[in-house]
Automatic annotation (TrEMBL), chain A:
Species name: Deinococcus ruber
Signal peptide: none
Protein name: Lactate utilization protein C
Gene that specifies this protein: lutC
Domain LUD: 104-205
PANTHER family attached to this UniProt entry: LACTATE UTILIZATION PROTEIN C
Record lineage: Bacteria, Thermotogati, Deinococcota, Deinococci, Deinococcales
Domain of life: Bacteria
Gene3D superfamilies named among the record's database cross-references: NagB/RpiA/CoA transferase-like (3.40.50.10420)
From TrEMBL, chain B:
GO molecular function ontology, one term from the record: metal ion binding
Protein name: Iron-sulfur cluster-binding protein
GO biological process: lactate metabolic process
Species assigned in the record: Deinococcus ruber
Origin: domain of life: Bacteria
Length: 208, 474
């Protein structure tokens, strides 16, 4: 495209004319590791996620299959590769095999793990690696059950960003999720579940 | 059409006179601004080092602006390395053509859109329509504005001027939805049903960008409803239009902005959904990605040493919600896709101070400074307003103001002239005083009394009083 390359040169020339000579240096704030007790950090994540109307349950590793069986009883559950077989045993699961978008909408729920979770905001982060699947999986079914291990919870946004550096460098997409889909566009009344999953369940595995 | 563009169709005082008459809109805005303002203070108070984060945010933006060419070239290289394509657009027309050509190359006539002010700025929807391509807005508020053939009135909540009853009527007529109540949940469900099929089947999506990371080629969209995720992941082709000032150097630099933006904007700790993607991901999401880098006046703002910091803006809308002028006049009075205090400095600058109507915007402020206090990236809006007033005034012709000022200087320079003028004013004001106040001055002076009363001149001036008192003593 000829026009585009002319435009590129023009814009870069105008920028260089506008900024010539000044090179402000950037001093970044260091990411300080949190000094708060782990238990407080994990508890705050659970509290804040719940404030955004995620359904949060704290469980032990061995309780997971039983809780999942109750939570997903009678539902067709879509699962990405990489989840422990023990979790899936009591469920009616279908592995992701590249189903079309229309096929994905026939599932009642999706079950995933996450890459990190953030206490100060109540956010779970998916990097769509093993156990999390492609982005459409956690978007189209109406319920998302996300399993978070307590040791994945970090205190602050800067800590999470640091923890996700490797995923970003590897070119992986990220999805940050804080509660289920919501809108406040009509008279500022909050409504859950406009387009994404209407229900977000978080199972927080606390081995402590 | 939601595509409002930059050019106001009339000067701010004229537009504001019209919008001020809309009592409904003022009620909605007072409620909205008041609610978000209060919530925002709580959200900000939770963060112990908020001021440090603001400083960091401002400093990252300044660094980017000081080395913009370098960062854009790095972004371009990174996006290409990740399988995306990068295009450059000097102005709105060029960006419109680029998008339309990319859509036409897919042989489709329907696209879905994520809410994006940059595409509203370039009036993309109308341009696509002229090429036979229909763009559907998928953000609930943008959809409402589009269906109503209205314009957005707020950066964050574009349909804040509409009531639930109006939205129900709109959805009944335009979507054929059978709505039993005007409960927001029912209305949102109608939008969900209407858009679901489009999300699952439309081949091309168009978005803006909140941030883009130069060294990794990562683009970011911050949203709430999930319509963004739908558009960004389900279609085959994704076209993102991004103002050149949105680039950040490195991944670590996203951290302060993910702290600053949600709390300043929706007053939440975090917005429900944020998507990050780097070029294309095999087997996941669109397999064709185009990033359009838009100038459209930004390099002119960059060239202005004082005005430049306007480009730090992250479009959070905190300044709108604290502005007494915005709260009363409403977003439509600003006549541009950028309303409120940020619009008052950004719009005239993007138009190179050459648009007569946009040039009235730096006066749409009481200079109270609330916008500066609220701005998460510390844009000194009041200072830039005053600076722009100074830049714009010399362009003004014929200069009645300067004649009046010269006359006043002549009068004030000599005590006897001043006293004479006061006497003259006291005698002359007679017919103008009604119920102890001057409510309307004649001719050009009427500007002074159009929105306030003038106290009448007293029967006796202080000087006369002083002379009389002292005569008695001496």
């Amino acid at each position: 495209m000829k026009v585009s390359s002319e435009a590129r040169l023009d814009i870069l020339t105008r920028i260089n004319r506008a900024t010539g000579g000044q090179q402000p240096a950037l001093e970044r704030m260091p990411v300080l590791p949190s000094s708060r007790p782990r238990a407080d950090i994990v508890a705050q994540f659970a509290e804040y996620a719940a404030e955004y109307r995620a359904h949060v349950q704290t469980v032990t590793e061995s309780e997971v299959p039983g809780v999942l069986a109750l939570l997903l009883a009678g539902k067709r559950v879509l699962v990405p590769g990489g989840l422990p077989a023990a979790w899936l045993a009591p469920l009616n699961t279908t592995p992701d095999a590249g189903q079309s978008h229309a096929e994905l909408s026939s599932f009642g729920a999706v079950l995933t793990t996450c890459a990190a979770a953030i206490a100060e905001t109540g956010t779970v982060v998916l990097d769509h690696g093993p156990g999390q699947g492609r982005r459409a999986l956690t978007l189209i079914p109406d319920q998302h059950v996300c399993i978070v291990r307590a040791d994945q919870v970090v205190d602050s946004v800067p800590e999470a960003v640091a923890a996700l550096q490797a995923a970003i460098t590897a070119g992986r997409p990220l999805t940050w999720i804080s509660g289920p889909s919501a809108t406040s566009d009509i008279e500022l009344s909050r409504v859950e579940g406009v387009h994404g999953p209407r229900r977000l369940n978080i199972l927080l595995i606390d081995s402590a | 059409m939601s595509a409002g563009g930059l050019h106001p169709s009339q000067p701010f005082p004229d537009a504001a006179r019209e919008t001020l008459a809309d009592a409904q809109m003022r009620r909605n805005l007072r409620h909205a601004a008041g609610t978000i303002r209060e919530k925002r203070l709580r959200a900000v108070a939770e963060v112990a080092n908020w001021e440090d984060i603001r400083t960091q945010g401002a400093s990252i933006k300044d660094t980017v602006l000081g080395n913009l060419a370098e960062h854009l070239l790095e972004l371009e290289a990174s996006v290409k390395r990740r399988g995306g394509q990068v295009h450059w657009a000097r102005d709105a027309g060029e960006a419109q053509r680029l998008v339309a050509d990319l859509v036409a190359a897919q042989g489709v006539s329907e696209v879905i859109k994520v809410k994006s002010i940059s595409t509203d700025e370039i009036e993309l929807n109308a341009a696509l329509e002229a090429r036979g391509i229909h763009a559907t807005e998928t953000d609930l508020a943008e959809l409402i504005v589009q269906l109503a053939e209205d314009r957005p009135s707020h950066i964050l909540v574009p349909a804040i001027h509409k009531n639930r009853a109006e939205i129900r009527e709109l959805f009944r007529h335009k979507l054929g939805a059978d709505l039993l109540t005007d409960d927001p949940a029912v209305l949102a469900e109608a939008a969900r049903v209407y858009l679901r099929e489009k999300f699952l089947t439309t081949k091309v999506a168009i978005s803006g960008a909140n941030f883009a990371i130069a060294d990794t080629g990562t683009v970011c969209i911050v949203e709430s409803e999930g319509n963004g995720r739908m558009c960004l992941t389900l279609p085959d082709v994704l076209i993102s239009v991004m103002g050149i000032e949105k680039v950040l150097p490195s991944w670590a630099d996203i951290a302060p902005f993910m702290q600053l933006l949600p709390r300043s904007s929706t007053a939440e700790r975090m917005n429900p959904y944020t998507s990050f993607w780097s070029g294309i991901t095999p087997g996941d999401g669109p397999q064709h990605f185009h990033l359009i880098l838009l100038d459209n006046g930004r390099t002119d703002v960059l060239a202005d040493k004082v005005g430049r910091e306007t480009l730090r803006c992250i479009r959070c809308s905190a300044c709108l919600n604290v502005c007494p002028v915005y709260e009363r006049a409403g977003g439509h009075a600003y006549g541009s896709v950028y309303p409120g205090p940020i619009g008052a400095i950004l719009t005239p600058q993007l138009l190179q101070l050459e648009d007569e109507n946009a040039n009235s915007l730096p006066w749409a402020s009481s200079l109270c400074g609330a916008c500066y206090d609220a701005c998460p990236v510390k844009i000194n809006i009041p200072e830039i307003l005053i600076y722009l007033r100074g830049q714009i005034t010399p362009h003004k012709t014929p200069n009645a103001e300067s004649i009046a000022m010269k006359t006043a200087a002549w009068i004030f320079n000599e005590p006897h002239r001043f006293e004479g003028a006061i006497k003259l004013a006291h005698t002359g004001q007679g017919p103008l005083v009604q119920h102890g106040a001057i409510r309307a001055l004649p001719g050009m002076l009427g500007g002074w009394t159009s929105s306030r009363n003038l106290p009448p001149f007293p029967k006796q001036s202080f000087r006369e009083l002083w002379r009389r008192e002292n005569e008695g003593e001496q």
